Amino acid sequence: MSVANVAKGDAAYQTRSLYRSLLRQSRQFAAYNFREYAKRRTRDSFREHRDERDGRRVQELFQRGLKELQALKVTISIQGLRQTVVSQFFQLDRLVVEGGTSGKQTGTEGGISRQKDTG
């Protein structure tokens, strides 16, 4: 096996590791919209550059990915602090897509009204 193949295999491993780290970090967002946006952006970016063969360009993209990962970590930690302060003042309902049980839908024949659970 040549040195180029070893380096290529190592780069592929590092790239997959970066991809998984970005997705894992994306899951840390508390807000559904931020979480889904970060996951979608990561997937789209990696798919867009899937066939990149230029070594220099691959290295630039990898470095940009590392910067994105650091930015995600900082953003999530700041969001966590902010969310703690905000949640002390407001009781916010979870979105339906987040699996929250903050309300029920009642009504018949298409007449649906939102009703908040209190309990």
Question: How are the SSEs ordered, and which strands pair?
Answer:
Elements: H1 3-26, H2 32-48, H3 55-89, E1 103-106, E2 113-116
Antiparallel strand pairs: 1-2
Helix pairs in contact: 1-2, 1-3
Helix content: 55-70%
The description of the largest β-sheet is: 2 strands, antiparallel
Query: Pairing-aware structural class of the strands and helices?
Result: mainly alpha
Q: Say how many strands there are.
A: 2
Q: State Rg.
A: 21 Å
Q: Would you mind describing this structure in some detail?
A:
This protein has 119 residues and is mainly α. It is 64% helix and 7% strand. Strands 1-2 form a two-stranded antiparallel sheet. Residues 1-6 have low confidence and may be disordered.
Task: Using brief descriptors, characterize the structure shown.
two-stranded antiparallel ribbon, 119 residues, mainly alpha, 2 strands, elongated, disordered N terminus
